[in-house]
Amino acid sequence: MIFFSTQCTNVWDYTVLYCGGACYTYIQSLITFDWLFNYGFLILIIVISNTALFTRFIWRKASRQQPIQWRRHRRLIIQLIFISSLFLIFGVPSTLVAIIEVLWLPTFLLDIEYNYLTYISVYGNQLYPFVIIGSLPEIQKDLKKWIGRIRRFFLDQGQVHPFQTSVNQ
């Protein structure tokens, strides 16, 4: 639809945030489909698949009558929670606002969506590497060492010591 549409001609306006776009974005049914498929459907898949994965894990352990050792699976659970919650934190607000705009109120939080929510998804993508690297145990140990060094450095710099002068008699 992006390359073969003959419905419009792009007009570039460099004074606005988005100075053009794909021609299919001017057709309401196509942009609604694009939004639902690329944003709403992704959030739905993440919620369903994470719930299914967690339920499957507990179901397998229960069917084999094995105790669940949460300490042993802690790293996997933390990584799953951080990655999913990062995507949901940065994806759900704009999705909810867009659903309300499409179904009920077309001007609902329009200025907030235009000025803030369009950028939030970009920040989520930028934070994924830090979440993944931060969940590795070797990196966590190194980070704790660096944080301890930085803390000691600032604590030493911020201390006030009395100044002693020697009195010559």
Overview of the molecule:
With 169 residues, the protein is mainly α. Helix content is 66%, strand content 0%. It has 4 helices and no strands. Helix 1 (28-63) packs antiparallel against helix 2 and helix 2 runs antiparallel to helix 3 (110-134). The model has no long low-confidence stretch (mean pLDDT 76).
What's the number of domains?
1
Q: Please bin the fraction of helical residues.
A: 55-70%
Oligomer: single chain
What proportion strand?
A: under 5%
Shape: flat
Report the C-alpha radius of gyration, rounded: 26 Å
User: What string, H for helix and E for strand, traces the elements in order?
Assistant: HHHH
Q: Give average pLDDT, whole number.
A: 76
Quickly give the structural class. mainly alpha
Major sheet details: none
List low-pLDDT spans. none
Please work out how many helical segments DSSP would assign. Answer: 4
N-C termini distance: 94 Å
Number of strands: 0
Defining key terms:
about 170 residues; mainly alpha; 4 helices
Topology:
Elements: H1 28-63, H2 74-103, H3 110-134, H4 137-157
What's this model, at a glance?
It contains four helices and no strands. With 169 residues, it is mostly helical.
